[in-house]
Amino acid sequence: MKLAMIGFGQAGGKIVDKFLEYDDRTGSGIVRSAVAVNTAKADLLGLERVPEENRVLIGQTRVKGHGVGADNELGAEIAEEDIDEVQSVIDNIPVHEIDAFLIIAGLGGGTGSGGSPVLAKHLKRIYTEPVYGLGILPSSDEGGIYTLNAARSFQTFVREVDNLLVFDNDAWRKTGESMESGYEEINDEIVKRFGILFGAGEVTGGSEVAESVVDSSEIVNTLASGGVSTVGYAAEQVTDDSSSGLLSRFKSDGASDSMDAANTTNRITSLVRKAALGRLTLPCEIDGAERALLVLSGPPTQLNRKGIERGRKWLEEQTGSMEVRGGDYPVSDSSYVASVILLSGVHNVPRIKELQQVAIEAQENIDEIRAESEENLEQLVEDDEDELDPLF
Ligand SMILES: Nc1nc2c(ncn2[C@@H]2O[C@H](COP(=O)(O)OP(=O)(O)OP(=O)(O)O)[C@@H](O)[C@H]2O)c(=O)[nH]1
């Protein structure tokens, strides 16, 4: 699947950079265009792979290239004011060659959190291609303002995009690790999972005979449920027996053939379970997911239709969804078989309920603060009137 990736804010830009590196390393070809938008000049300068002409510094008149300091209302205002500057770079994207836009942002800060829903709304108004978001939730030890920003941004972002893919830093942070090295690992995890998922829709036949390759339209259809999505992953190293796999096809011994096939099938079904029941990018109950897509990547000799079909059936039972798609992503030089599962339209997500609660409480507090200040104001006016009365 070909994407125009737009990283908004520091986390967004860094992750787009990582996707470009992944593309170079694996040849997966998912990033058709890469753009980075920020209010902080230093963050844009720190990027390594996003082309310089695709780095957009917004809000110069307001914050002079220094960022918005986690003020996401200011981030949103600046995005509104400077949307034309972002658009002028997007104008250079060959939109007819992409399958979708993907806006990537950390939702806890100010720039990406405030700006990405504004950009999503703008893109949806102009283009017919789907606009997806990849939202990163802050870890809970980052502090109240980050949680509050995420709670507010999440609500708007999910409304503006066609589907919001979510990664929760909180579920992935390791204690005792520095933030920077923690992010390195987390970003690798993000790029690996989403890279396999989107890369699956980019296989172009060739010599690798896949049994049922995932098509980019299957990814689009899975995401068409809307709402929030999460991604599971599990992998197992396989010995480099692609040659023996090929040889075994010519063996007269039918029993060993069927043993190989049974092992392959069992490995696939067990990887599907591990991916769905292991740590998801956004932990949640998989029961009730509206749609799902199962991708099995690895050497073609280690993939088979029976395993995928069984995995797909199992996912149908677990999610209760009748729209579970599945297919191969053959990668002949890989020594791993990996299972990636996209669960789209998930509902039972504790972290989101928690964020919604934070947003409601903040709203109530705001109402209280407003009510209090209105009372104070009335009191002041009354006091003034009392003082003024004797004069009349
Ligand atoms: N996964 C991941 N999350 C990150 C990374 N950097 C920051 N974050 C998260 O993203 C949130 C937002 O941070 P930034 O992207 O730095 O913020 P910004 O959008 O540039 O906004 P301001 O700095 O306030 O102008 C943080 O609270 C972290 O939770 C990263 O490299 N990887």
UniProtKB/TrEMBL annotation:
Residues 352-383 form a coiled coil. It is found in: Cytoplasm. InterPro entries: CetZ (IPR032907), CetZ_C (IPR048737), FtsZ/CetZ (IPR045061), Tubulin/FtsZ-like_C (IPR037103), Tubulin/FtsZ_GTPase_sf (IPR036525), Tubulin_CS (IPR017975), Tubulin_FtsZ_GTPase (IPR003008). GO terms for molecular function: GTP binding; GTPase activity. GO terms for cellular component: cell division site; cytoplasm; microtubule. Pfam families: CetZ_C (PF21011), Tubulin (PF00091). Keywords: Cell shape, Coiled coil, Cytoplasm, GTP-binding, Nucleotide-binding. Residues 2-205 form the Tubulin/FtsZ GTPase domain. GTP binds at residues 10-14, 110-112, 142, 169, 187. Belongs to the CetZ family. PANTHER family: CELL DIVISION PROTEIN FTSZ-RELATED (PTHR30314), TUBULIN-LIKE PROTEIN CETZ (PTHR30314:SF10). This is Tubulin-like protein CetZ. It comes from Halapricum hydrolyticum.
